[in-house]
């Protein structure tokens, strides 16, 4: 089963990105045959930045994205959203690609489930 997560909120300040990644990680653990795709849009594109430093005991979106990627998940960011936020030329996490709405439309058409956070 192919499951697409579309994230919109900033990685911190709201727990939507955190909860989406928790679910993605749980699916990878409990349904290892599932294909997990994550498309970061709007303010969530900042979740793909490397070197995130969070306080001790606080969740870290960078580590969570790395865990999803490490288990075969795909993560892409909206190119226009990345450019609008000035991060298109910054270092992103290894395995994250800047992408397009065309890619998102393809993933959406191919997916069995689409979850929007």
SSE map:
Layout lengths: L1 E6 L8 H15 L4 E6 L20 H10 L3 E5 H6 L11 E4 L1 H10 L2 E4 L1
Parallel strand pairs: 1-2, 1-5, 2-3, 3-4
Explain this structure to me?
By secondary structure, the protein is α/β, with parallel strands linked by helices. The chain has a single domain (2-116), classed as DsrEFH-like (Hypothetical Protein Ychn, Chain: A, 3-Layer(aba) Sandwich). It is built from four helices and five strands, in the order βαβαβαβαβ. The protein has helices at residues 16-30, 61-70, 79-84, 101-110; strands at residues 2-7, 35-40, 74-78, 96-99, 113-116. It has a five-stranded parallel beta sheet, with helices on both faces. Strand 2, helix 2 (61-70) and strand 3 form a beta-alpha-beta unit. Helix 1 (16-30) packs parallel to helix 2.
Provide a concise account of the structure shown.
By secondary structure, the protein is an alpha/beta fold. Helices cover 35% and strands 21% of the residues.
């Amino acid at each position: 089963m192919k499951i697409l997560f579309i994230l919109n909120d900033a990685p911190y300040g709201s727990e939507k990105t955190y909860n989406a990644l928790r679910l993605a990680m749980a699916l990878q653990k409990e349904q290892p045959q599932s294909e997990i795709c994550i498309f970061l849009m709007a303010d969530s594109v900042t979740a793909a930045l490397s070197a995130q430093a969070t306080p001790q005991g606080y969740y870290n979106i960078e580590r969570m994205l790395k865990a999803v990627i490490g288990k075969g998940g795909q993560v892409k960011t909206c190119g226009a959203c990345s450019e609008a936020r000035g991060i298109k030329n910054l270092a992103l996490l290894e395995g994250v690609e800047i992408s397009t709405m065309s890619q998102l439309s393809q993933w959406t058409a191919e997916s069995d489930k689409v979850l929007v956070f």
